[in-house]
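Example 3.
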Amino acid sequence: MRAHNLALVLQMVANSPDRPSRAALAAATGLTRATVSALVDDLIAGGLLAELDPPPRTRAGRPAAGLALAPDGAAGLGLEINVDYLAACVVDLAGTPRHQLTTHADQRPLPPATALAQLGRLASAARAAAEADGLTLAGAALAVPGLVAPDGLVRVAPNLGWQDVDAPALLSAVPALADLPITVDNEANLAALGELRADGGSPSFLYVSGEIGIGAGVVLDGELYRGVHGWSGEIGHVTVYPDGRPCRCGGNGCLEQYAGQEAMAADPAGAATALGIALSAAINLLDVDAVVLGGRYAAAFGWLREGIEAELKRRVLTADLAPVTLRAATLGEDAATRGAADAVIRAVRDDPAGWLARRPDEPPHPAAEK
Amino acid sequence: MRAHNLALVLQMVANSPDRPSRAALAAATGLTRATVSALVDDLIAGGLLAELDPPPRTRAGRPAAGLALAPDGAAGLGLEINVDYLAACVVDLAGTPRHQLTTHADQRPLPPATALAQLGRLASAARAAAEADGLTLAGAALAVPGLVAPDGLVRVAPNLGWQDVDAPALLSAVPALADLPITVDNEANLAALGELRADGGSPSFLYVSGEIGIGAGVVLDGELYRGVHGWSGEIGHVTVYPDGRPCRCGGNGCLEQYAGQEAMAADPAGAATALGIALSAAINLLDVDAVVLGGRYAAAFGWLREGIEAELKRRVLTADLAPVTLRAATLGEDAATRGAADAVIRAVRDDPAGWLARRPDEPPHPAAEK
């Protein structure tokens, strides 16, 4: 019951457009003022809520102190390994990105343990920066361009050359991460979630991430559609030309061979047509009303758009009834790490009692003690 | 509260493997014996539950009378209009099909009102047969091979040549249907639901219906995935050969041009390959672990299978990790009408209070009065 009420109060503050007072929370929840105050005190001590001074008086009446998500308490660490870069990102409980670190380097020649050790160094730097701000990391989430099992095992990441890599165990070997819960997810799934939070627009869309490989995340009514194994959205291996170029997956004519980063550089018009054909298949099957192009596609959006839209108009059965909105991702290359860090934050916001029970005994910042 | 408890008791009987007694229902729900008895009496009077004599004694102890869904009370009427046939089906509350009527005739030359009037005659005959059994129809659901708006308006049914047809209004003009609530849905969606109930197997699959046109229903975790507008699963218009045969939808190389009923008769091997290419796209995007082939594909399964599986093996990224099960629909051509009738029955089972309030005052069968 206490766990439920802690989550209730925290969510109510998180979703409130202004800063509610303790009295307003008591009225909205139906809990007694004393119960709400005890819950709020626990959430403040745990670095999840902050009580802020009243804003300057602009109208009559005595303003009460207001509650907000603590900007200097719990935070999430988002990590990404991709074919030609590593990235780390810290997002605070209020959803504000605080630190973003990116290193460009080809990961393909490296054994997984080496690549993850290098990512671990970036993660250590991000953690140090977060702690210098007084933030306490609640966990880390890793985005990988591949198929991930529910326990975090990376089954296959074709463009990294990975197979059955225990990424959580390898990252936990980094001293700075050893005490953090670590989860792993597909990068397009996490990027789609990042875009969902950042955009505030349509709650239903297909997010397509164009890097060396191509992945997609399906969001319907504000929820990620994962599929049976969590492997939905593999649009990079949708066949565009059945007898076309061989793909490293063993198929022929996969989208990735025509609209991956390298093919796109060689033939942008061909990339747009191929993307339009594969996106049409996805829209005919999934009935989403928006497509968000992320990763390298975000920067290339201006010269991809016309070619893609011509194919959608021709090949989507419902194009005349309900046109599909095509737009560039607002987060660009940061979407996956933002989504990963957000996933950590969401877990804390959904279960504050769990966080209060396992958080470090001595928060690094005295503000959290007040 | 009464509405909630009526539904609770009815669902508990529906989901019970044996026939529970009133006492067992009281114990399981936490309601008093008197409350349960009053609810059960109402459900029996409304033709939703039946109290059956104890089964012959097979062990020690005195068996109590058991409750079951009434096989002679409320029933659902499923209707289908397709390009070359009309069908009607009656399913009783326990999910048992009671009557199935099918008429083969090309519907394309007929104006929608004429085609629906003919379907109305089939529906009248099905209703007469149901009432001769003592059943009371709770409503009708119509399956249409096209895009249907939430209010039942058929926006487009390309292979029937329909556009913006108010199917519920036209069916309500049939005297035998005038007093029934009528809903309309896509035929592949309803067929997928019919297959889900009938099969009892995997709760996640893609159901593909092969007629003159081709549609699909996506079922994940026992729920139909409808998409934003209810237009998901339009696999017939997934591009297989980008510069291929022109389709009546305005595209080129749509699956329907290579694996629709007419193309399949002319070139079965080509149909299998085309189906395999489009199914691979669907599996890469949706991550379902089973594909169920219905409509004409069910009968043709033996000679389609090998060609389809060869493409899945080659083109589904996760084929080696988690092979997809391919099987023929168990219901064949009856799947859509069965699913439609089931949808009516489910609505009654989910809201028995609504049914009790609006059911006809004098049930046609004296058994419902006892």
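The longest strand of chain B covers residues 136-144. Chain B has three domains: 2-69, 75-190+334-369, 200-333.
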